[in-house]
From TrEMBL:
Signal peptide: 1-23
Top-level taxon of origin: Eukaryota
Residues in EMI domain copies: 45-99
Full protein name: Transforming growth factor-beta-induced protein ig-h3
Species whose genome carries this gene: Fukomys damarensis (Damaraland mole rat)
Domain FAS1: 103-236, 240-371, 375-498, 502-632
GO MF annotations, alphabetized: cell adhesion molecule binding
């Protein structure tokens, strides 16, 4: 019986919502924001909502969590006020808003919610007031008094001069012949108005803002005996044209009109859907260099990418933007849409000159600057915005800039400008060839690169790809930023100049006088063939200085013992290629001798076994060479480390014995033995 009661209690708890009532359907974004405002206002009494007001304006917003802490709307500071939540009123002498508003008909409710001007204009018509006071079920999106006052004088005059046709029709367009609450207002839906069954566009955004033909709901869900009233911040008008038709009739879209026709996008823009068109004006097109504009207009694929980059996948009204958010275009790129006061911004720029031009299939915002996507740009145009101007200037000086502006399928490996902080190199035949080796044949994407892959350059070299846990490198240079994919080519931003390999590890060592003693030692140890054949080696090469720093007796003894010499040298050779950009904090690299080398990087200083490296990334066809100024000793050759290893082993045994001592008297007797062994090892 007790178990049954507990199960029933658990079932009831799961069925109850946070307030102890039966959990209903999921709340809409608007209801969630209202709930948060109510939560923030509860200290002031029941049914009190916290409201954010933008300083210096009459704009008010129910607050969500993010806005509450930031205290800003569109970058402008706000103050918090506390008001009765929708549907409630104050009672003299009592805290908060304990009383529910009395239910009245639609006409009387208009006055309660702050739309007395709508009441006034309803009175002027002969038919509408009796309808609002009579039986039925209606929804009215009622403009606030401020909304009516902000109408242009000529528009208002045309309405009030013909109250039983123009004004009546305008008011009926704000009405729906059924009760519609905010939880039914879905993003992208259309409601049929009471004026000629014309559609009203509804958008319900994730931040809780609801718009009606891009007018924002200020106070929603005010119930009446014969319907519901939603207060909105604008007087709305009928929508008759689709996006394509608006482009056709606007003089400022002459160039856009021709571009849309050439791209074939007119079918999309006159079809069904809900889009946002960031429509470039004639002025926007005129700001682009004629050569660039003519190239794009003459290239159907680039033109289509350009226009798709101006079309957002959903309708976005200006009133819905209260902070920055990312929005995806039909091109697949992401635009940062934000606001600064009353101005909308795109990627941080206030380039929208006219907003919220409504169409049957979306909304249009006029912009005065073209948004050219990477996919419509040449390599040279990509480089302008990528902090790699130094290398593009070098390519120009070397007479190679045509590769960046033509239609060749290429990938440019472009070092950052910071690589040349000590000055750009002089252009000669060798430098020109090196620059050609920074241009890879084919349009490559970094996501398609894999370990062991080779890339052919215009300079005739084959560059190797190295993939590490946190780095993707091509020879000694690693990719420093996401690649940019242009119309014909791809731009990789690299962290240093490439140094293509010029020979095997043995060739590299022989060609550098610093390693003459090492070369002799390698030959004596019989490792010449190993370092000449194909392979993947990382060689920590002691310089002559390193050998000379050894005690003479120790050096002579080492050089006179081929077996021991080979063992020491193999400890300097890792069994994989590790360039400095792939090290990260610490890498344990297995040596040919068997023990592991600890390779670390901190503050751009590479160390091996805690010894700083003198020079990194000397590339060879079968590996990479690091110059070091000391001869590394394997762990087995280090007395202190050998003792530490034995001591550590004894300590581990002692710990095990201590654990078992709790369950075994025998272990207790053995524990002192292990303790004495530990002390001997430590000394």
């Amino acid at each position: 019986m007790v178990l049954l009661v507990r199960l029933m209690a658990l079932a009831l708890a799961l069925a109850l919502g946070p307030a102890g009532t039966l959990a209903g359907p999921a709340k809409s974004p608007y209801q969630l924001v209202l709930q948060h405002s109510r939560l923030r206002g509860r200290q002031h009494g029941p049914n009190v909502c916290a409201v954010q007001k933008v300083i210096g304006t009459n704009k008010k917003y129910f607050t969500n969590c993010k806005q509450w802490y930031q205290r800003k709307i569109c970058g402008k500071p706000t103050v918090i006020s506390y008001e009765c939540c929708p549907g409630y009123e104050k009672v003299p002498g009592e805290k908060g808003c304990p009383a529910a508003l009395p239910l009245s008909n639609l006409y009387e409710t208009l006055g309660v919610v702050g739309s007395t001007t709508t009441q006034l204009y309803t009175d002027r018509t002969e038919k509408l007031r009796p309808e609002m006071e009579g039986p039925g079920s209606f929804t009215i999106f009622a403009p606030s008094n401020e909304a009516w006052a902000s109408l242009p004088a000529e528009v208002l005059d045309s309405l009030v001069s013909n109250v039983n046709i123009e004004l009546l029709n305008a008011l009926r367009y704000h009405m729906v012949d059924r009760r519609v609450l905010t939880d039914e207002l879905k993003h992208g839906m259309a409601l049929t108005s009471m004026y000629q069954n014309s559609n009203i566009q509804i958008h319900h955004y994730p931040n809780g803002i609801v718009t009606v033909n891009c007018a924002r709901l200020l106070k929603a869900d005010h119930h009446a005996t014969n319907g519901v009233v939603h207060l909105i911040d604008k007087v709305i008008s009928t929508i008759t044209n689709n996006i394509q038709q608006i482009i056709e009739i606007e003089d400022t879209f002459e160039t856009l009109r021709a571009a849309v026709a050439a791209s074939g996008l007119n079918t999309l823009l006159e079809g069904d859907g809900q889009f946002t068109l960031l429509a470039p004006t004639n002025e926007a097109f005129e700001k682009i260099p004629a050569e660039t504009l003519n190239r794009i207009l003459g290239d159907p694929e680039a033109l289509r990418d350009l226009l798709n980059n101006h079309i957002l996948k959903s309708a976005m009204c200006a009133e819905a933007i209260v902070a920055g958010l990312s929005m995806e275009t039909l091109e697949g790129t992401t635009l940062e849409v934000g606001c600064s006061g009353d101005m909308l911004t795109i990627n941080g720029k206030a380039i929208i000159s006219n907003k919220d031009i409504l169409a049957t299939n979306g909304v249009i915002h006029f912009i005065d600057e073209l948004l050219i996507p990477d996919s419509a740009k040449t390599l040279s145009e990509l480089a302008v915005e990528s902090d790699v101007s130094t290398v593009t200037d070098l390519l120009r000086q070397a007479g190679l800039s045509t590769h960046l502006s033509g239609n060749e399928q290429l990938t440019l490996l472009a070092p950052l400008n910071s690589v040349f902080k000590d000055g750009a190199p002089r252009i000669d035949a060798q430098m020109k060839n090196l620059l050609l080796n920074h241009i890879v044949k084919g349009k490559v994407a970094s996501k398609d690169l894999y370990r062991g892959q080779t890339l052919d350059t215009l300079g005739g070299k084959k560059l190797r790809v190295f993939v590490y846990r946190n780095s993707l490198c091509i020879e000694n240079s690693c990719i420093a930023a996401h690649d940019k994919k242009g119309r014909y080519g791809t731009l990789f931003t690299m962290d240093r100049m490439l140094t293509p390999p010029m020979g095997t590890v043995m060739d590299v060592l022989k060609g550098d006088n610093r390693f003459s003693m090492l070369v002799a030692a390698i030959q004596s140890a019989g490792l010449t063939e190993t370092l000449n054949r194909e392979g993947v080696y990382t060689v920590f090469a002691p310089t002559n200085e390193a050998f000379q720093a050894m005690p003479p007796e120790e050096l002579n003894k080492l050089l006179g013992n081929a077996k021991e010499l080979a063992n020491i040298l193999k400890y300097h050779i890792g069994d994989d290629i590790l360039v400095s950009g792939g090290i990260g904090a610490l890498v344990r690299l297995k040596s040919l001798q068997g023990d592991k080398l600890e390779v670390s990087s901190k503050n751009n200083i590479v160390s091996v076994n805690k010894e700083p490296v003198a020079e990194t990334d000397i590339m060879a066809t079968n590996g990479v060479v690091y110059a070091i100024t000391s001869v590394l000793q394997p762990p087995a050759n280090r007395p202190q480390e050998r003792g530490d290893e034995l001591a550590d082993s004894a300590l581990e045994i002692f710990k095990q014995a201590s654990v078992f001592s709790k369950a075994s008297q025998r272990s207790v007797r053995l524990a002192p033995v292990y303790q004495r062994l530990l002390e001997r090892m430590k000394h």
